[in-house]
C-alpha cells in the first residue's frame, strides 16, 4: 500500500494532466452528441473516464495497464449495449464460441469508437508533455472549435471556454512539475503550505473567469476571413447561393440531428433535429393579400421524412413560356379570386422553384421581361420548376406571377361524405401512401381523435385542432427522448414538442391513415409588412402598404388535403400559425387583408441569443464558484489586515501613519468607550487610574485585565520607553478579554 501511494505521489503531474485532458475530451464528446447515436456517445464517454481512472489509480507497467484498459473497455461496451437494448442474447447460440461471436457482431462499430477515443486520449497525454506542446495542443483545439463555430450554426462558446479553463490548469500543473524538478528543496518547502498553493491558484482562476464573463461585447473592427470571403463571392453574411442547399429549414433538414439555421432546404429525407432562427431577408413580395408563398410538395413518406425529392421523376413536367396559361389543379366546385404577386429575390438566392400562392395560373415576367426560358410546370403538384434541364440558368432576380386563389365553401364542404368526395377518383390513391411498417398506435390515435367527425373535412379539422392544442412549439426539441424509428410516432408519443415539420408531417400521415388524401408542402409563411409612413395624399386616396419582407426564419411547411371536386385545401397544424384562407364569406380584399394581418402569426420568437443563453445557463455555477472564492479571499484579506484598517481613518485625518504610542492611546480610548456603554462611567475629575480602581471594585472579574490595560496606557503616555507594534496589539488582546468577561458575567 505504501509503495502504491508513493507511486501515486510520484506521478501526480500526469494524473492532473489526464484530468485536464479529460475535460477537453468532454467538449468534443459534447460537440458530437447531437450527431452520434446516444449509445455511441455513452460508450465513448464511459471509455474515456475508464481510461483516465485506470491510468491514475493503477500505476503498473504500461503493457499490463493497457491490457486492463482494453478488457475494461470491452466490458463497458458490452454492458452499455445491453442497457440500450442493442444487444439481445441469441437463444440459438448455446455454445460459448457462438455467444462470443454474437456479442462481437453487435459490438461493432461501438468498440472501435471506444478504442479509438481511448487511443487519442493516451496519445495526447503522451505527446503533450511540455509547456510548448501543451500550448500547441490547446491552440489547435481552440482553433478547431472556433472554425466549427464560424462555419456551422452550432454555438461552441461553452466548449471554447472549458478548453481555455482546462488549458490554464494544465499549464499550472506543468509549471509546478518544472519547479519540482529544478528546485527540489524549494518544492519540499512548498509542500508544507498546500492550502496557500490551492488558494492562490483558485484566486487567479476566479479573476480570469469573472473578467471574461464581464467583458463588454464589442463588435470586431476587422472583418473575419470567412465573412470577407462570402462578401467577395457576393453571398453575404448568412444567406446567398449557399444558403438554400446548406441550411436547415423549418420544413426540412440535412440530417435529423443537425442543429442548423432556418432556411429553405432541398433535402427532406430525414426530418427532425433543431435549428436557430436566421432573420436574413430572402425576398420581398408585393401582393394585395398576405398569404403563404408555396414552393414544392412531397408525396412519399418513408417513416423518417419525404423521399421523393427527384424533381424530374416525381411527376410529369411540361415546359412553359412566360405569359402562357398554366393548367390548373383548382377544384371545379370552387370559385377563385385572381391575385397578382411581384417577387424580388434578395442576396442572390437561388431556388429550384418559383414561389407563388396556390394556384399559379401564369408567370407574367422574368427579370422585368415578358419572355424567358427555364420554366417547367407540374400541374398535379402545382409546382413551377426552374432550370429542370440543368443549364445553370441564373435564378431570376424578380418575377411576377398571377394566381387563382380558391374561395372555399366551408359550410357546403363540411357536409360532404367520403363517397361524395372520392368515389371514382384515381388521384386519391396516390396520396394515401404510408410505409408498410407505419405504427399502429398512430392510426389508433387518429381514429380516437376524429371519432366524433363524420366527414373528411370534420375529421381533418379535429386532427388540426388536436395538434395545435396538444403540443408546444419549439425550434430546439429534445430529440434525446425519441426512441421510435418513425418520425411521426416519436413526435406524438415521445417528443411531444416540435416545429412545423413535425406538425405538418403528423397531419398528413394521420389524415392518410383515415383514408383522406393529403400531401406535404413547403415554402414560406407570409413574412412581415414594414411600417412605412404615409403622407396625407396617400391616406386620402386609400393607398395601402402591400409590400412584405420574407426572411429565412419564415421558411415553413404545412399540409394540403384533397377534397375531390373541391380540390386541394391548405391546412395549418403548427401552433401560432394560421393560413389566410378565402371563404365565401370573405370576398372583400380590404377585409381579408386586415383580418389576416391580425390572425396570421409570424414565426415564434427564438431565443434572444443562443450563445449568451447557453453560456449563462451552463456556466452559472462556475461564475458563482468564482465569486465565492474571490469573496472569501476578500474577507480573509480584510481580517488579516484588520489591525491596519483600525487606524485607517485616523491616518487619513492626520495625513501620516500613527506611531505605536498613538495606537495604544487610540485603543485605550476605544475600550474606555466600551465600558462607558456598559454603565462604567469615568468622571471628569477622575484620572484613568482612579477610574480603574473604582471599576475593579465594582467588577472584580475584570480587575486584572483593567490594570494590564492601564499599565500599557501609562507606559505609552508617560514612559520614555520605546513602544512597539506588539504592545498596542497586546492592548487589543486584553480589551477582547475584558469584553468576554463582561459578557460571561451577564
Distance between the termini: 56 Å
Rg from Cα: 39 Å
User: What fraction of residues sit in β-strands?
Assistant: 5-15%
Number of helices: 28
Rounded mean pLDDT score: 80
Unreliable stretches covering 5 or more consecutive residues: 235-249, 251-258, 532-544, 586-618
Strand runs, count: 16
Q: Largest sheet, described in full?
A: 6 strands, mixed
Shape: elongated
Report helical residue fraction. Answer: 40-55%
Task: Give short descriptive properties of this protein.
four-stranded antiparallel sheet, elongated, 28 helices, six-stranded mixed sheet, 12% strand, 746 residues, single chain, alpha+beta
Describe the overall structure.
Residues 235-249, 251-258, 532-544 and 586-618 have low confidence and may be disordered. The chain has 28 helices and 16 strands. By secondary structure, the protein is an alpha+beta fold. The relative contact order is 0.08. The longest helix has 31 residues, at 610-640. It is elongated. The two termini are 56 Å apart. Helices cover 51% and strands 12% of the residues. Strands 3, 6, 8, 11, 13 and 16 form a six-stranded mixed beta sheet that branches. The chain has a four-stranded antiparallel beta sheet with strand order 4-12-14-15, covered by helices on one side.
Amino acid at each position: 500500500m505504501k509503495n502504491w501511494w508513493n507511486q501515486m505521489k510520484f506521478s501526480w503531474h500526469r494524473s492532473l494532466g489526464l484530468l485536464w485532458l479529460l475535460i477537453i475530451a468532454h467538449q468534443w464528446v459534447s460537440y458530437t452528441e447531437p450527431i452520434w447515436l446516444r449509445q455511441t456517445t455513452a460508450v465513448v464517454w464511459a471509455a474515456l473516464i475508464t481510461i483516465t481512472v485506470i491510468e491514475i489509480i493503477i500505476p503498473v507497467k504500461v503493457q499490463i495497464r493497457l491490457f486492463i484498459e482494453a478488457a475494461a473497455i470491452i466490458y463497458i461496451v458490452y454492458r452499455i449495449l445491453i442497457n440500450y437494448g442493442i444487444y439481445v442474447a441469441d437463444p440459438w447460440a448455446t455454445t460459448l464460441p457462438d455467444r462470443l461471436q454474437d456479442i462481437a457482431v453487435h459490438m461493432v462499430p461501438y468498440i472501435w469508437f471506444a478504442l479509438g477515443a481511448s487511443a487519442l486520449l493516451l496519445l495526447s497525454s503522451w505527446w503533450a508533455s511540455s509547456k510548448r506542446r501543451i500550448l500547441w495542443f490547446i491552440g489547435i483545439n481552440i482553433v478547431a472549435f472556433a472554425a466549427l463555430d464560424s462555419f456551422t450554426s452550432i454555438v461552441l462558446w461553452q466548449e471554447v471556454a472549458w478548453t481555455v479553463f482546462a488549458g490554464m490548469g494544465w499549464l499550472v500543473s506543468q509549471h509546478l512539475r518544472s519547479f519540482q524538478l529544478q528546485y527540489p528543496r524549494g518544492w519540499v518547502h512548498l509542500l508544507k503550505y498546500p492550502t496557500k498553493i490551492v488558494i492562490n491558484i483558485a484566486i487567479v482562476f476566479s479573476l480570469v473567469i469573472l473578467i471574461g464573463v464581464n467583458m463588454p461585447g464589442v463588435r470586431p473592427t476587422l472583418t473575419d476571413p470567412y465573412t470577407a470571403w462570402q462578401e467577395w463571392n457576393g453571398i453575404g453574411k448568412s444567406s446567398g447561393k449557399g444558403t438554400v442547399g446548406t441550411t436547415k429549414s423549418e420544413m426540412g433538414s440535412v440530417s435529423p440531428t443537425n442543429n442548423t439555421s432556418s432556411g429553405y432546404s432541398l433535402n427532406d429525407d430525414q426530418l427532425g433535429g433543431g435549428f436557430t432562427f436566421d432573420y436574413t431577408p430572402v425576398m420581398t413580395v408585393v401582393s394585395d393579400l398576405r398569404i403563404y408563398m408555396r414552393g414544392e410538395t412531397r408525396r412519399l413518406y418513408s417513416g423518417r421524412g419525404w423521399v421523393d425529392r427527384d424533381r424530374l421523376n416525381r411527376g410529369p413536367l411540361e415546359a412553359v413560356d412566360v405569359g402562357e396559361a398554366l393548367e390548373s389543379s383548382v377544384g371545379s366546385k370552387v370559385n377563385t379570386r385572381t391575385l397578382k404577386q411581384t417577387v424580388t429575390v434578395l442576396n442572390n438566392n437561388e431556388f429550384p422553384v418559383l414561389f407563388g400562392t396556390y394556384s399559379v395560373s401564369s408567370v407574367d415576367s422574368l427579370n422585368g421581361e415578358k419572355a424567358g426560358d427555364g420554366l417547367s410546370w407540374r400541374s398535379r403538384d402545382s409546382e413551377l420548376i426552374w432550370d429542370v434541364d440543368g443549364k445553370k440558368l441564373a435564378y431570376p432576380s424578380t418575377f411576377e406571377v398571377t394566381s387563382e386563389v380558391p374561395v372555399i365553401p366551408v359550410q357546403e364542404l363540411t357536409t360532404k361524405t367520403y363517397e361524395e368526395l372520392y368515389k371514382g377518383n384515381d388521384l386519391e390513391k396516390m396520396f394515401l401512401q404510408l410505409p408498410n411498417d407505419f405504427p399502429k398506435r398512430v392510426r389508433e390515435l387518429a381514429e380516437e381523435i376524429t371519432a366524433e367527425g363524420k366527414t373528411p373535412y370534420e375529421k381533418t379539422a379535429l386532427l388540426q385542432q388536436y395538434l395545435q392544442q396538444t403540443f408546444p412549439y419549439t425550434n430546439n426539441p429534445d430529440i434525446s427522448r425519441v426512441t421510435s424509428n418513425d418520425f411521426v410516432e416519436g413526435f406524438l408519443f415521445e417528443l411531444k414538442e416540435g416545429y412545423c415539420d413535425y406538425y405538418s408531417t403528423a397531419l398528413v400521415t394521420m389524415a392518410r391513415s383515415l383514408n383522406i388524401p393529403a400531401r406535404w408542402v413547403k415554402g414560406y409563411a407570409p413574412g412581415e409588412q414594414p411600417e412605412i409612413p404615409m403622407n396625407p395624399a396617400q391616406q386620402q386616396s386609400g393607398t395601402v402598404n402591400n409590400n412584405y419582407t420574407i426572411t429565412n426564419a419564415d421558411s415553413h411547411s404545412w399540409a394540403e388535403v384533397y377534397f375531390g371536386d373541391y380540390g386541394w385545401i391548405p391546412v395549418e397544424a403548427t401552433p401560432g400559425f394560421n393560413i389566410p384562407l378565402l371563404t365565401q364569406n370573405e370576398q372583400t380584399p380590404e377585409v381579408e387583408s386586415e383580418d389576416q394581418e391580425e390572425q396570421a402569426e409570424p414565426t415564434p420568437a427564438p431565443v434572444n441569443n443562443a450563445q449568451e443563453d447557453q453560456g449563462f445557463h451552463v456556466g452559472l455555477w462556475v461564475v458563482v464558484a468564482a465569486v465565492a472564492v474571490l469573496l472569501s479571499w476578500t474577507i480573509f484579506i480584510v481580517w488579516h489586515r484588520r489591525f491596519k484598517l483600525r487606524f485607517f481613518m485616523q491616518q487619513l485625518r492626520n495625513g501620516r501613519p500613527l506611531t505605536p504610542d498613538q495606537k495604544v492611546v487610540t485603543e485605550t480610548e476605544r475600550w474606555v468607550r466600551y465600558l462607558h456603554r456598559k454603565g462604567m462611567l469615568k468622571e471628569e475629575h477622575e484620572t484613568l487610574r482612579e477610574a480603574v480602581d473604582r471599576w475593579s471594585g465594582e467588577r472584580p472579574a475584570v480587575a486584572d485585565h483593567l490594570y494590564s490595560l492601564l499599565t500599557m496606557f501609562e507606559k505609552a503616555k508617560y514612559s520614555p520607553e520605546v513602544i512597539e507594534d506588539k504592545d498596542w496589539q497586546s492592548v487589543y488582546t486584553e480589551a477582547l478579554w475584558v469584553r468576554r468577561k463582561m459578557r460571561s458575567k451577564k
